[in-house]
Amino acid sequence: MTDADVIATLDDLIRIPPFHAYLGVEVVRAAPGLAVLRIPPKEEFVGNPLVPAVHGGIIAALVDLAGGAALFIETQIPTPTIDMRVDYLRPAIAGRPLIAEARVASSGKHVAFVDVDVKDDQDRLVARGRCVYSVKDRASPPPGRAYPIG
Amino acid sequence: MTDADVIATLDDLIRIPPFHAYLGVEVVRAAPGLAVLRIPPKEEFVGNPLVPAVHGGIIAALVDLAGGAALFIETQIPTPTIDMRVDYLRPAIAGRPLIAEARVASSGKHVAFVDVDVKDDQDRLVARGRCVYSVKDRASPPPGRAYPIG
Amino acid sequence: MTDADVIATLDDLIRIPPFHAYLGVEVVRAAPGLAVLRIPPKEEFVGNPLVPAVHGGIIAALVDLAGGAALFIETQIPTPTIDMRVDYLRPAIAGRPLIAEARVASSGKHVAFVDVDVKDDQDRLVARGRCVYSVKDRASPPPGRAYPIG
Amino acid sequence: MTDADVIATLDDLIRIPPFHAYLGVEVVRAAPGLAVLRIPPKEEFVGNPLVPAVHGGIIAALVDLAGGAALFIETQIPTPTIDMRVDYLRPAIAGRPLIAEARVASSGKHVAFVDVDVKDDQDRLVARGRCVYSVKDRASPPPGRAYPIG
Questions:
Q1: D44 has pLDDT over 60
Q2: CATH: 3.10.129.10, 3.30.70.260, 3.40.50.300, 3.30.365.10. Which one for D3-134?
Q3: Which of A52, B66, B122, D1 is the most buried (most CB within 10 A)?
């Protein structure tokens, strides 16, 4: 597959789960061990009307999703999240898209570690995530094409 | 306020942000340093149609939300999330409500630590969270009633 | 084995690694899924002479060690640490022993989650840890008695 | 101060705590927001005689220490650790020095986030850490020179 094909395929898959459709997530870049996803600004993502910042839960969901996507390009199998950490470096100002760049740091026989940076469209780092996924079924990919991320 | 009043007030506040309305979150119990929240089963929370489990991002959002709610009962101020960890102990089977029980472990002058257990309606522990919040503005609560959680 | 035997066996094993000897760790209680360890007060554990508190690295090491011990009682195999989180709730005043109570929260086919509370001898919670271990070799225990913790 | 002065000063300070002397830590590089520390190979750092790898607690201590050092160059004040995460990407083979490179990701009025990579002398990434520190006293540095790290 060309890079464009990888992006298009991942973009198709990632839009399937209804929660991803709610987030409006789209694939910006994709390569082995790398996924860059984008969610658009939406008024309903604001956590606190008095502090117009994106809800931390939206950002956490984006981190998990991007990490799983980066891994899927390599593994082509579902990789359940074992644990996740999100650090909120600064408020994500509402009204701006958020871009999550996920890179696989290490992928072994049993688990994989993925780092995720979340920036706004002015390249300000708003959050940083670390996710650990189980890749236990790597040896036996499922028959047929399973939707794997989320 | 009576306990029932605390619950009703928190329940009113927590339903304000649109993302909380999407989650359908409601307050089950509330006391100083404790919040128990519930989200109903929704088909759109499923992450992967082939593995009918609740999306990890939904669970992460619930953890952050419950932690903030437990703290708000004590502080009555907005407390931005500094960081959060979520451990996914077992898949959250779709079609069941999820109950998050958040307890403030320690609340100092600057930061507060909150532990969150997420169980299904059969009391199976599906996830465990640890959240750290900034309580820096505790000394100067905002004028008027601010919506604080999220 | 009786409970006393379990404690004595674990205590023997845990003293083998030189770093554990440096820490002076001893086993206080032990049962399936539970380990309570203790390190004595030592002047050399102080991190900063001007703030006489125990070094955070000593506490982190104790967390990892206690979590591994709790798991070893169940698994009897080496369980490498995948990741660990430590929250420092309050300074651990130097000159007091520290007691780490580790409980296995969940132990599956591939990974296990362990929670660890670190208290001083006045029952003040000074730190709280969460560790994830690989239990991948559970099916095939090593021949002979392996020292497993650390 | 020249870069060499910064390194020499930090190196002097970092050797003060007895636990750091035990670790044998030395400063390799230092600049605002960056610290590179090194610990030598020592037989007593081995966790499990049957699996000759460096004890996870040693690595966790190094992560905390390096993160605090990177921050101290900027802040010149003690910055207590709020929480720390360590991911163990691969075993740290005993008999090799370990190098921790800590970079301040974000430093605000109240907290700072630091990322730490731990590699061996063959540039293999063995662990990755994320630490959050309280910088609350930044406005009021202590009188005189306090030893700050640890």
A1: yes
A2: 3.10.129.10
A3: B66
